[in-house]
């Protein structure tokens, strides 16, 4: 693996989905780190630099909006893709306001589509 591999933080409390994303993204050549809740995600963001974050919004303890607020407040340079069950336009607008570059609703987003999107964003 080359040292130029992009680092992705997966923030997802549904372990099977987190594992599936981790597996697929690793196969694509990305370095992945998984956080199972927002608190863990913030801890990773404080000590490591990531190129992109795949972020769920509904999680125990700290939710995804809390993570977005942390990124925003601390000027963390990271591209964020939201992958959530929340499909209300106000949730989408709020996430985009905090800097999310993409917003996918879990139920209608195959992993392949998400991976394609991540490749596009990181290879621009």
Question: Mind explaining what this structure looks like?
Answer:
With 124 residues, the chain is of the alpha/beta class. The protein has helices spanning 15-27, 38-47, 64-73, 89-97, 111-122, and strands spanning 7-11, 31-35, 52-55, 79-84, 100-105. Helix 1 links the parallel strand 1 (7-11) and strand 2 (31-35). 28% of the residues are buried.
Structural class: alpha/beta
Described by strand count, sense and barrel closure, the largest sheet is: 5 strands, parallel
How many E-type strands?
A: 5
Number of helices, counting only DSSP H or I runs of 4 residues or more: 5
Distance between the termini: 20 Å
Quick tags:
124 residues; alpha/beta; five-stranded parallel sheet
Describe the structure concisely for a colleague.
By secondary structure, this protein is an alpha/beta fold.
Write the layout of secondary structure elements.
Layout: E1 7-11, H1 15-27, E2 31-35, H2 38-47, E3 52-55, H3 64-73, E4 79-84, H4 89-97, E5 100-105, H5 111-122
Parallel strand pairs: 1-2, 1-3, 3-4, 4-5
Helix pairs in contact: 2-3
